[in-house]
Amino acid sequence: xxxxxxxxxxxxxxxxxxxxxxxxxxxxxxxxxxxxxxxxxxxxxxxxxxxxxxxxxxxxxxxxxxxxxxxxxxxxxxxxxxxxxxxxxxxxxxxxxxxxxxxxxxxxxxxxxxxxxxxxxxxxxxxxxxxxxxxxxxxxxxxxxxxxxxxxxxxxxxxxxxxxxxxxxxxxxxxxxxxxxxxxxxxxxxxxxxxxxxxxxxxxxxxxxxxxxxxxxxxxxxxxxxxxxxxxxxxxxxxxxxxxxxxxxxxxxxxxxxxxxxxxxxxxxxxxxxxxxxxxxxxxxxxxxxxxxxxxxxxxxxxxxxxxxxxxxxxxxxxxxxxxxxxxxxxxxxxxxxxxxxxxxxxx
Length: 348
Fold this sequence. Notes:
By secondary structure, the protein is an alpha/beta fold. Helices cover 43% and strands 21% of the residues.
């Protein structure tokens, strides 16, 4: 009996010592600011339920890619999907997590209502061809607005940015001139003279708030959270569309993920449909195909598995569009086959 009691006490002691260790498991990620509000809230809820800490730094897609290449994080995030050859070269697996809308954010004190823009006009503003708010092209779209003869300050991303990639992909799609002079990419050379940069979606939002007469582009959640007015857009069908979760979902519904290349890299800009928002993109996670630390790899997969299952409500609250269940099933099936540690599957 005494031996049994001693064994039981020893077992309890081991369990008590092990419990804090489990609670202190943490994984580190970095990259895109586009999904940062959702990842931050997912991480908070997940930590409450499991004790596992998710440290996510929104440093921009370019920074996330760089840290994955350097293997200084457990996962990276990008809004500009890597191409199949990059994915193979880096030895990673890339999958989407969320979709959302990019919106023109405007600070123009003289105008109290909502302005309307179309793609070609927005492209000319960022090319520096339209420099005043009372330009005839803007007045034509907003005949009732009291537009001032104020200089337009364009705000752009100063860091390597997936939001930049989505926005410039849209402008390149609607404007041959923008495509030839600027093109699309995570970083581009902006030709406008009256232009300022901001780091991350928060940096662009802050610049727009601070500069009267400015226009920038941010993920919708940042405009909502910071109470920055946004422009309505004329979409591919010629309809005036307000940014909303539903208009983002309408555009996303046209995406055919079964035809996506390796890494699920699909563009969702300028999609057809009367009720589609024209500037929508997915955001992606980059994980290693072979994790040196199996426990870390499993912790990463467990977190995103939980997020797919439990994070939809949070995503909706923050104006993101969740992935279709069919895509989630494809991704999780891939994990079982593709993600290993020492050549052995991490998650069955």
